[in-house]
Amino acid sequence: MARRNKKTTPEKIRKWIAEGRGQGRGADYKPWLTGQDVSVDSFSVRIKILEPSGRRYEALSLLEADYFKILSWLPNVVELREQYPLLPLETTQEIARKLGVEHPSFEGEPIVMTTDALISLQGSIGIFDVARAVKPSKKLGDPRVIEKLEIERHYW
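and the corresponding structure tokens:
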């Protein structure tokens, strides 16, 4: 089996944007990353959730899959967008620089960071979005994981 090129280049970013990755709403949303695009610790899972949009969700771990299933049962969840890209890339690079941490990269090329779940909720003031990172608790002791979560927090 051929090895996939997981390097993120400006050309690949432009191509993925042209493909509609990280764009769309509801059933038309396409996640920025799929299980085929990244090396994950365990394996990726495609799950079909009937609500809110009925499309197949790309979970990059069983923990994410379980989280998405729980969200699907909440009555105020209007939409779920997984692996939502933090674009433009220059924004997260600037945040990393200001924080004094290294921006995530693969083989020397900066990567587009993603939020595990961007959830649209119906509240008393209307529809609003919340971003959530889904990480196993054992990874929260890793300083590098915390640095990346801080970049993501500052982005939102």
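(Above: one complete record from the training split.) The mean pLDDT is 86.
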